[in-house]
Design brief:
By secondary structure, the protein is of the alpha+beta class. The chain is about 45% helix and about 10% strand. It has helices at about 25-45, 45-50, 55-65, 70-80, and strands at about 85-90, 95-100. It starts with about 25 loop residues before the first helix and ends with a strand.
Length: about 100
């Protein structure tokens, strides 16, 4: 182990790394969003019908969204951009470049 942090001078990152909130595919991420937002809305909409028991759907929605709606939105951006941008670092500076599609 060299003791260098990722992105340090002389370290190249050629392979795209998915972000922490990204999903494998965009349809999978959108399905997670539909489940998450649906569960949160249902927990509030069903409150007058079934009472506080409906609030048990809220944690299900938050787990599907991986914490919060903003986390889901960040993950959507990461999922869409995965494989389209490449970060390379050399000699103390890093830059993003577009990956050419075949």
């Amino acid at each position: 182990m060299t003791g260098r942090a990722p992105g340090a001078a002389g370290v190249r990152h050629d392979a795209p790394t998915p972000g922490r909130f990204a999903s494998a595919t965009v349809p999978r991420h959108l399905a997670r969003g539909a489940l998450g937002f649906g569960a949160i809305v249902a927990s509030l909409a069903l409150l007058p019908v079934v009472g506080p028991v409906s609030l048990l759907l809220a944690p299900v929605g938050l787990v599907a969204l991986r914490g919060c709606p903003m986390c889901w939105a960040i993950g959507l951006m990461e999922t869409v951009s995965a494989g389209r941008l490449r970060r390379s670092c050399a000699n103390g500076s890093c830059e993003l470049t577009r990956v050419a599609r075949p």
